[in-house]
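Give me structure tokens for this 116-residue protein.
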Amino acid sequence: MNLPDWTKPALYGAGVGAIALAVFGFAWGGWVTGGSARDLAAKQSAADVVSALTPYCVQRSLDDPNAAAVLVEFNAANASSRRAILEKAGWATPLGSEVPNRGLAQSCQLALQAGT
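Here you go.
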């Protein structure tokens, strides 16, 4: 079987073009692998949950009968220990959960600082 003379250069061109397309697509085109997409989706989902639950945490701080004492301790504490105070008070523990959510505590801390 005789192939035309242009077949070999055409196949090389297609191969080089495919490699160049992949390099440009992943480096600058915004393409990602399935694993990277799952990681990005998990991070965004966690951030969305924290964003949705922050008003819940702030409301729990308003409804808590010990809120005044906790807020005095919160305001007197340094920035690195404020999250632990909110976790200990239970304000950063979502409904149905036994443990506080660290991201929620951080977000609630920022909301409470903005409100005080």
